[in-house]
């Protein structure tokens, strides 16, 4: 990248960081990304589709030829930003705590390179909302009917991996997951006579113990699974009332889709059994489902070849990323891959108040992406 282009992208990243917006609310973010591309480039057809947009570049090849595509997400999280920087979030309770500001700025950097170097291939740059809730990619799937995409790539910054090092693997890169809400309804009563009511606390306590047993019984599953209790609520803050209802919220994740379904079935069956035993009404629902992100072998091979040709540090992941990524939906449509770029081995974790995307990742990722266009 030209030094001035990199500086421009870093400034853009800082602007985005100051104005974080949650999933499906990214109006300022989207408008400013659109403005950046329209002001800084002149070789793209920019197509606005409401919540998302894409920039199409027609190379010197046949206009009907297929295109290589790249994705950046741009939503933030409901987490306070407590970084020591002049571009700290201006929105209380919201922050770019996953680095999507950096992903979007990187894709804009790739746009500047394409605008300057004008490659032969057709290229699609997709700017996507709502990755954090697992819905944004699904809302963008019309892009396949509008563009002849034959391969799709993306990246994510990754604390804990060596700085400026590409990390990836063939097959499952990120786990499949979903959120489960388990609802228990009993009968409230005066706290002096709990026997007159039906308090769900005891059934829920036994369920929590049973969940630990499920998670530690590796014979039940084909591969890695994880079950995390994220929220428990029973009754009200009133010492005179014995609780009459409660909710338990879990995140479940797995290496394989069939294991995720089996884990869900086991959890729900245990909750139903305990509810019946304690004469509780039980219901449940799920949300924020992410399929497994499965990299295609040939796409991973191309990333390795590009990195080796550029002298870019690259390594194979020892195990899949435990978090989930809705980029999975694109890889179900066409060959492609996602890779990680290391933030540093002692860097602040994702989804924490002190996290801030490292600006030093923008240039090496742009170089890898551009290398893929030419591969």
TrEMBL record:
GO function terms (MF aspect): hydrolase activity; metal ion binding
Record keywords: Hydrolase, Manganese, Metal-binding
Name under which the protein is recorded: Amidohydrolase
Protein's UniProt keywords contain Cell division: no
Domain Peptidase M20 dimerisation: from-to ranges: 177-278
Superkingdom, taxonomy of origin: Bacteria
Cofactor binding note: The Mn(2+) ion enhances activity.
Cofactor field: Mn(2+)
Binding-site list for Mn(2+): 98, 100, 132, 156, 351
Source organism (scientific name): Eremococcus coleocola ACS-139-V-Col8
Database matches in Pfam families: M20_dimer, Peptidase_M20
Keyword Iron-sulfur among record annotations: no
